[in-house]
Amino acid sequence: MSNPPSIASTAARIDGRDLNRLGAIAREIAWGAADILIPHHGNATGGLRVRHQADGPVTSADLAASHYILQQLRVAVGSQDYAFVSEETYKLDPDSRDRCRHDWVWIIDPIDGTRSFIHGDPNYAIHIALAYRGRPAVAVVAIPAADKLYYAHLGGGAFLETRDRQHTRVRVSPRDRLQELCVVTRRSDRDSRLYQLLAHLPCRHRPQLGSIGCKMAALIEGNGDAYISLSGRTAPKDWDLAAPELILTEAGGRCTYLDGTPLQYNRADISQWGCAIASTGGCHDALRSAIARRLSEIDRRRSQIEYR
Fold this sequence. Notes:
The chain is of the alpha+beta class. It is 34% helix and 26% strand. The strands form 4 sheets. The protein has a 7-stranded mixed β-sheet, with helices on both faces.
């Protein structure tokens, strides 16, 4: 698990932890999880077991990758100083229930974009983040179908690693005019409030299937400029946002709540309620202001209709 020379000089430490080393561990584990997932991608009729739950489908591949990631992390870093929370185990794992007492917590989504994974769509990702006192410090987003892995640690920049272990620093687009921004969305989102908002923003928007990690990758690669999470009956969870957020911000982007404050993780409620906005950063504040105005108008009209 040697560190690539291109980032050796950016190694950082928090509370005695070597973030560069921890990131290297997370990358190797993410590649191993990718190897588990790839043979099952789109194989719903060939042995992939799918269980449908209230908050979405879970497959046997989700469970296998989650077990692998948790096991490998615990072997590599130990369990004394870290809590662990995975989408597939957080309701049952004692470590998950105890996580809020820990400064350091590993936040894992073995498949972000499970529906895409089941149907053979390449837009799914593996998320591994390490948060310190509620904020991400190490992040990995692997996109197995593309043989790509994005990674970052706090203050060290963001990088792309390929299967042959080539490393390239990544930066977001410099676009800074609101009218030029493209907002990536998802076709499966039925939140009418979000679509009313998108219809009245000065930005363009286009469907972007798959995970939040893939959407953040689209922003980093210049295939989009913003992503809006607007919770309705459900909301993204910590494991959906923690890793993609750090990679985006280390690439020069921004990710905040509507009021401009940073996202917080490892709270009692693991859901990210409200409005979170990710962007390439050039006009993040102008975008926040436009969204706030439009939401206020939408909610005012809705309340008037309900009052009548």
